[in-house]
Request: fold
Amino acid sequence: MSGLHFDELWKVRLLDPDASARTQELKDECKNFTEKMDRFQQLVDGFIEVINKLAKCVEEEKLLAIGSRNSIKSMEKHRESVQQQLHALIMEKRVQLERYRVEYESLLKAEVEQKDFINQLLRQS
Reply:
């Protein structure tokens, strides 16, 4: 009769009451552990979801920053190009101004020579 046992209600049991109680206790602990693991898994899933959303936001901001940086570089290059064009235009205008100044001085000299020539003619007549 070593494999048969009687519980407190005198029912026949195959397991020792202590082993049965430990088995039930282990079953309850396993159930409790499984519930805790399920809650933990839910927390981890929630955390991963939040991190993924945050990563998506960071990636979007990163792309916006890259776009802004490229736009600024493009504006800087355009500004430099315009600045070079304006500098070239200023140089052209300075050369043109110098040419006009030389031409003006030449015309003044020609005017003086013509006036002198006219005065000489008027004196001779």
